[in-house]
Specification:
By secondary structure, the chain is α+β, with helices and mostly antiparallel strands. It has helices at residues 2-20, 63-67, and strands spanning 32-40, 45-46, 52-57, 70-76, 84-85, 88-90, 93-100, 103-109, 124-132. The strands form two sheets. The protein has a five-stranded antiparallel sheet, with no helix packed on it. The model has no long low-confidence stretch (mean pLDDT 85).
């Protein structure tokens, strides 16, 4: 009798444990928006420190993204077949960026910041800016 009760107990416990375990999957979607800008060499300017730059008007870049979100920039020199994440150094030119509400500035400069070294500005450039929402934790 004990063997039958033990078998029933083990069988019931097994069914209870295996049937109560369910996997739940949650799709977490992080909303992002992406804008692509096209620029030519004539649109670049030079600042007081002799650094070449181009400004982009990005109205989607709100205070939210500046204070809490994520801003990513990538550049393409081959009509958007490949992109390089910025900051990067390509062909002896260091590319970086900074941003503020409504604006992104892309810099092209000598990677070692040596005085008098000319920086070849790209003749044709695509710039991809992606803005991603994020949860800010303090």
């Amino acid at each position: 009798m004990k063997k039958i009760l033990l078998a029933i107990f083990i069988g019931t416990a097994t069914v209870a444990v295996t049937s109560s375990c369910t996997k739940e999957y949650y799709d977490t979607v992080v909303p992002s928006i992406t804008m692509v800008y096209e620029r030519t060499a004539s649109q670049w300017e030079v600042d007081d420190l002799d650094t070449d730059y181009v400004d982009l008007n990005v109205p989607e870049l709100t205070d939210y993204y500046v204070n809490q979100g994520i801003v990513n920039v990538a550049i393409s020199f081959d009509d958007e077949e490949t992109y390089f994440a910025v900051p990067t150094t390509l062909d002896g030119v260091s590319y970086s960026y900074d941003y503020t509400t409504g604006s992104v500035r892309i810099y092209a400069q000598d990677p070692i910041l040596e005085d008098g070294v000319p920086v070849p500005i790209p003749q044709h450039l695509f710039i991809k800016i992606s803005l991603t929402e994020a949860d800010f934790v303090q």
